[in-house]
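Good morning N.,

You mentioned wanting to compare the apo and holo forms, so I went ahead and generated the holo version with fe (ii) ion. This is what I fed in:
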Amino acid sequence: MSDIAIAEVGAADGSENSRQADWVPIHFDLRDTWFPVAFSADIGTQAVRRIVHAQPYYLWRDRGRLRAAEFRPDQLEPLRRSATAFTGGTGHYPVTERYGYVWAWYGNSDNADLALNPCIPFLPVDGSKIPRYTQRTVRFDAASPLSVENLIDLTHADFLHANAIGDGRCESDIVEVQSTSETVTRTRIVTRKSVAPVMRWIGGVRAKYQDLRAVLHVHLRNNLAISYPSFSSGYAIPNVQPFVPVGRHRSRVDQTNYTVAAPAPFRWLMPRISYVIQPQDNAVLRPQNERYFDADGRRDLSSRFDAPGNRYRLLMRRLAERQRQGDFSYAADANPSADISVVLGMNG
Amino acid sequence: MGDGQWWAVSLTEAVGNNKPLSVVCEGEELVLFRNAAGRAFALEDRCPHRRVPLSPGVLTPGGLQCPYHGWTFDGASGVCREIPNLHADERVPSRHAARAFLVAEADGFIHVWRGSGAPTGVLPSAAYRPIGREYSGSAVVNIVHGTYLETMLDGPECLLAFPGVTITDFFLGDPRREGEHLVLDRGGVWKGKGIGPAFVRDHPLVLRTRVPLAGGAIFVELLTAAEVPLVTIFIASTANRRGTTSLNWRGFRHAHHAPGAPFAWRLRRTAGRAPFEVLPEVKGKSIAALRVAPSLELATSRMRQGAECRGEHNE
Ligand code: FES
Ligand SMILES: [Fe+2]
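and this is what came out, ligand included:
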């Protein structure tokens, strides 16, 4: 990677972090949002347990009807009286199915609103015809915000993932950040980069160089990362990485690498790149997560390359602060279900 | 005495210039490495950028490069010398630094200075003067550091072994203060000789353990009844994480003849086998069963030593 320019620096410059209280990614518990807690295809008549923060979600289908409850189906009746405010005392969470995922509401169930369900423009809304090979479950050994930060952070790829991702040599590399009160969008434009080995050998890209335009759009409340990297020559490899917090130490990601437009066998093999990358990320995330529990007051140092990540930190803190003061509403600049195909740079 | 302490944290040969070594000293994670010229350095094993351990990083001519984003830290100062992809005219702010520790290498050990005061006193290994072939090793034992030191007084047979020798728990006197150590002698007998340890008229061997009042430098000597040294061991100990203890040791056999030594002892010597063993695992059952005896003196001696350091006088 070379020559990164950060557009629109503002509060997200390298020193942002030293002016504020320290970043504690382990203590975020943002509410009133839809979490993609499972692939639709994984839920049948047998109940499975998923966890959001520390809250259990039992998922199953009852005569075709999708259920999401605080208790196992056989214990629903005896335990219903101890149901929490997450289900409004009913034991049942608001739940819906879109884009091949089961989405369950986390927060005040009175505020559950389908209009707040995020839009993923490249996936079929009804989830039909999403091939199983595009869906893969990976686990991050860190709190969700720390894992999202790893995804936003481009500069680690040259070191931690050098073997899988390539040498990062290119003519120019520009990174821009935009945000709303509920989202961060990072756009990266790389021109004349050498083709990644994996694309050259199994991806059928014969050219020596390619251009890349990669947009990463992150919803803050539910740590949902929607990504649209488009290569020319080459193709787009759109993907969804929902970081579902499973407590303060781990996150679960049911990712969809929607490679259907890519040639075979790349289409099938590319989603498996997580098997290489994932252990590399976890090797750093594991000790990192532990150290964010340290109360020694030493703040992280940053460089200008951390601007996108520091913007994310700032926005997360603001959102958490608003929620601490009892404001769970979505501000006027936020509309999770808005069509983001233009934001992602689809259609060229 | 300043507010700090030298600690021997690793064997010299454990740190090369191709790969950093992670160690723990007083519960804190450190990374040790050498530059091409062979000079040893110690940094906190924590990158100030995003807190990941530096020890899986790469050694470069500029220092130690973090495995996550490639910031490179100077070994002596801890200052970040390089952030990848910065323009030639961009400077790294000088506060961008990892915590660095003062290092002294001597007697086959790498020592680090921990504390706020300026380094004082002699290195813990200074009293260790090997003659001839050495035997060394490292281990992490499942016992709290303070208990390890106490056990070295109450029951060193739970922590050490000398093949051919039975260490008894018959203390020869009470612990006495010698410099910064509490010293205790106990009787020992050759295995398979005579009527057994409880009935010997005089112990043919003496085991002398020196336990530090501060820091982790333990000395052990096996002596003849006439106090001629047969074996000397220096064990550098310090608290590791989660109630465990890190050990690094070196020891040697003296050239003196051991009168009355059984054939097996002489055979080991001829074969060049180690005359001692620092146990890499401790048995909970034996340690739990140990009676608290000479270690009672540790607390009072430490208190007295603390008062001396503060310049108080006890009449
Ligand atoms: S965490 Fe060490 S360089 Fe980023
Ligand atoms: Fe990564």
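The pocket of fe (ii) ion (ligand 2) is lined by residues A 150, 156, 160-161, 277, 281 (CB under 6 Å).

Happy to go through it together on a call whenever suits you.

Best,
F.
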